Amino acid sequence: MTELLTVENLHVVFQTYAGTVYAVNGMTFSVQPGEIFGLVGESGCGKSVACLAILRILPGHGRITAGRVLFDGHDLTQAKESEMQAIRGRQIAMIFQDPSTSLNPVFTVGSQIKRIIRHHTQASRQATEQRALELLDEVALPDPPRIMQAYPHELSGGMQQRVMIAMALASGARLLIADEPTTALDVTIQNQILELLVELRRHVGLSILLITHNLGVVAETCDRVGVAYAGQIVEIGPTSEVLHTMKHPYTQGLLAALPSAQQKGRDLLSIPGSVPNGLSVIPGCPFHPRCPHVMEVCRQTPPRLTAVNPGEAQHQVACYLYSPETAQ
Ligand SMILES: Nc1ncnc2c1ncn2[C@@H]1O[C@H](COP(=O)(O)OP(=O)(O)O)[C@@H](O)[C@H]1O
Ligand SMILES: [Mg+2]
Q1: Does pTM surpass 0.85?
Q2: Position in ligand 1 atom list of the atom nearest CA 180
């Protein structure tokens, strides 16, 4: 097995006053060592909930009801809480859209990074200080000695996100889950953070699960991508294949809704309808109520992910337009 992380048929529900919310409905994807895997989809498609489920940090009314999460071959859905504590931070680190919520406002950046280094190594005071400075330099923060003394609120959002990435590196994590890490940042800063992630993948060999609603971000950074809709993967494959020869009507709609596609003189093409609220499970293909190509079978039986063609085994789509048994 070569995968670092495999999410297999994951189901997550929330019990709410409005009823059961089916947030993740059979999601399957994997992240290989040293790769950046993108999980993309509109807001509400279950991307964040899937990440929380991987780390088993769902809120109390959320529950994994089926599926497996294999990390290094070990099923995290069955792990003891004490094992999960060792995995969180040490093996798998996570960064969020708003870094200020993850940093402690009352301690300096230096003390927060050094705490993590001390927690993971037996390094002396001096070596810890040295390593902290190195890490801040590695994430391209200017003047590391000054940043060490700074409190989080004295830094910009982009700098705070770099600090979060430095802390992930300090923990020695092999997998970084980055949930919309650039969504709150200016476009130029966004690009710098994405470049940093690409560089860390190259130099440190970090594997990254990058969550985004932005296909442009995927195009620039990801080796492979999974397109999520209603808590499932509807299309998956190498980024260039998925973005150049996208098959699923949902992926096609997402691409058509990109600003760059509209600038080429096309009408603003957004996907009609909206993401389902999760309060019921849609029979058949979850996209069928919004799909311009809907057929009878789509309303009845959920399509399975299948290879787009034998020469492209990695590129898979869950859509009856491409499955031989329905082609007439
Ligand atoms: N804490 C929660 N309680 C109840 N429902 C939730 C909670 N968090 C997310 N959901 C629901 O789960 C679904 C997936 O949400 P989410 O994973 O946040 O989407 P995404 O990250 O793709 O935008 C949505 O229908 C959302 O309303
Ligand atoms: Mg989200």
Answers
A1: yes
A2: 21
Nearest CA to ligand 1 atom 7: 14
| pLDDT tens sequence across 51-69 | 999 999 999 999 999 999 9
The residues, ordered by sequence, that sit 6+ positions from 99 with a Cβ below 8 Å of its Cβ are: 152, 157, 160, 161, 163, 164
Give the number of the atom of ligand 1 that is nearest the alpha carbon of residue 45: 22
| 29/209 Cα distance (integer angstroms) | 10
* Best CATH choice for the domain 5-91+173-322 from the list 3.40.50.300, 3.30.413.10, 3.40.50.720, 3.30.470.20: 3.40.50.300
Contact at 8 Å (CB) between 301 and 226? no
Of 216, 300, 273, nearest in space to 44 by CA: 273
Cβ neighbours, 10 Å, residue 318: 26
How far, in Å, are 68, 188, 194, 216 from residue 191 at the CA level?
34, 5, 5, 11
Find the residues whose C-beta lies inside 6 A of ligand 1: 14, 16, 21, 23, 41, 43-49, 59, 277-278
